[in-house]
Amino acid sequence: xxxxxxxxxxxxxxxxxxxxxxxxxxxxxxxxxxxxxxxxxxxxxxxxxxxxxxxxxxxxxxxxxxxxxxxxxxxxxxxxxxxxxxxxxxxxxxxxxxxxxxxxxxxxxxxxxxxxxxxxxxxxxxxxxxxxxxxxxxxxxxxxxxxxxxxxxxxxxxxxxxxxxxxxxxxxxxxxxxxxxxxxxxxxxxxxxxxxxxxxxx
Length: 202
Prior knowledge:
Elements: H1 5-29, H2 32-53, H3 59-81, H4 84-92, H5 94-112, H6 125-148, H7 155-178, E1 186-187, E2 190-191
Antiparallel strand pairs: 1-2
């Protein structure tokens, strides 16, 4: 099911806003907790908007937004009601755990979604599995890199997410070219036959 270009543009903005707002608020104000709560609220809003409109998020940004939604409430809750040592550990590894959440979301999509982690339902099954497993492998490597050296900050997270999103677009464009789908330009990583597919039941 197709959606209008205007609705697709709004969807792009909505699913990107939580991470953009979090980074801007943190870098400008320096208050990590405030930035986290703002990002969490925006992520909740994004999931609600996508749920109401029956749209599916970008398969990579789904994991990013899930992490933004849960990270601050979890860390703050453990600090206030749990073990401070565990809270410190979660806080130190907050960056790298973004990729763990992306990996988890990717595994769930690969196993349970008809679109796989690659996010395209009408792709041949063998290619969908191959591309999905490749994206899972990249996510796992990135998570291992980030968690092995928390002091590296955003570098492994940014590099891995860039590779996942950019690499996925390349793979989809390659598949489109090989199958003569010139009339189905890849828009925001989705073929125009399935931009933000409305089937969210899979």
